Amino acid sequence: MKGKVDALLGIVFGDEGKGKVVDFFTPRYDVVARFAGGPNAGHTIIFGGQKFVLRSIPSGIFNENAINIIGNGCVIAPDLFMQEAQELEAAGYTLTQRLHISRRAHLILPTHRVLDRAYEAAKGKDRVGTTGKGIGPTYSDKAARVGLRVGDILDNFEEKYARLKARHEQILRDLHFTDYDIREEEARWMEGVAYMRRFPLKDTEIEINEMLDAGRSVLAEGAQGSLLDIDHGTYPFVSSSSTTIGGVCTGLGVAPSRIGRVFGIFKAYSTRVGAGPFPVELFDATGDRIRDIGHEYGAVTGRNRRCGWIDLVALRYAITINGVTDLVMMKSDVLDTFETIRVCTAYKKGDDVLCHMPYDTAGWEAVYEDVPGWKTSLSAVRSEKDFPKAFADYIAYLEKALDAPIRIVSVGPDREETVMRE
Ligand code: IMP
């Protein structure tokens, strides 16, 4: 039988804890592949008392038997990739034959990062609050058909690099953004390019399809979240890639008929980093309390994440766009001490009430329903039968409202602190 591509997607604003779940899932899959985004992601994985933050490398790297792929839909910064890979090598993991990189993935140049800063500065108060990793400018060059791809490092690279860099420098002069010095960064970046040459740089779309034909299973590891998708997110406050299910097909070169299960991952509450509308945002002590208990500080930028209650309007939208078959609820334990839990069921503006996602969420306020908290620690729970009643009721309430089953519930950061429901 032919293998399938299952997808694991963050379905809100990213930071749902995908790293932990992918790591938990990887023993079941032969291949783990990233299909979109780049070092703007920060997937934190904790096991055996060790903590790793992965940015570009798929989380399957900790499973010695899995092949890991950085797909064509990704963007990759050679210097950051080298740093990330060397940290793993220093921890005893051998990577080179287990980590395959698409020749079609695009390269983030040092000047893309400068452009990211320059464009944000030019936007002033309308800035997106990007991670500053050069993501937008790199995808812009891809769409403008002037970008450099991983395959370019194999042939006459210096000349191609110089040409694109000169183009960027011209744009920066036009923007009067000249206060930057990338010399050190560029030297390290070039070292990264040399380092990348020792990895299998492949036509990974062919490889994945061959592996599927041979009956092997693939997990597509999402990055960011559905509401940061370039098409379906809260544009323009989005990232620049396709973070939803369509991105799995284009970002890996697999047909829709190859897709199996779609796991939609969300937290028991909401967070957002960067600018943009966020109807459930809490500006009070409750928001601070969620941030503190949930350690909601960015894995990449260290920024405070904006916190709020769970948003069923956003979740229903993302479930529809992605065709989610199974839900995964993370960080349930963060709400252990709350007397009452609020759930956003609709948005309102004046007399208008909406239960579906509007074109622009700016100016809409959340409408809440309250449910009783479970007020007991979930972290030791390993089986559904041990759920406190109020927690079991909360799950049943969400499943009904979202019309999708919650298959996995995470009750703590460690790999072990996970409950599977069948
Ligand atoms: P960019 O992807 O760096 O261009 O940032 C665009 C927007 O997406 C900003 O609001 C970022 O904060 C947000 N963003 C990008 N990557 C992540 C992520 O991995 N988690 C959460 N937010 C992200």
Structure characterization notes:
A hairpin with a 7-residue loop joins strand 19 and strand 20 (about 420). The strands form 5 sheets. Strands 9-7-5-2-10-1-11-15-19-20 form a 10-stranded mixed sheet, sandwiched between helices. It has about 425 residues and is of the alpha/beta class. The two termini are about 25 Å apart. It is built from 11 helices and 20 strands. Bound molecules: inosinic acid (IMP). Inosinic acid (IMP) binds near residues 128 and 131.
Mean pLDDT over the residues:
95
Count of strand segments: 20
Quaternary state of the chains: single chain
Total of DSSP H or I helical runs spanning 4+ residues: 11
Could you say which small molecules are bound to this protein? Answer: inosinic acid
List the helices and strands and how they pair.
Elements: E1 5-10, H1 18-25, E2 31-34, E3 43-47, E4 50-54, E5 67-70, E6 75-76, H2 78-90, E7 99-102, E8 106-107, H3 110-123, H4 135-143, H5 157-174, H6 183-196, E9 201-202, H7 204-213, E10 218-221, H8 245-252, E11 259-267, E12 270-272, H9 285-294, E13 306-308, E14 310-311, H10 312-322, E15 326-330, E16 340-349, E17 352-354, E18 365-372, H11 389-402, E19 406-410, E20 418-420
Parallel strand pairs: 1-10, 1-11, 2-5, 2-10, 5-7, 6-8, 7-9, 11-15, 14-16, 15-19
Antiparallel strand pairs: 3-4, 12-13, 16-17, 16-18, 19-20
Residues 13-15, 40-42, 128-131, 133, 135-136, 223-224, 228, 237, 239-240, 273-274 line the site of inosinic acid.
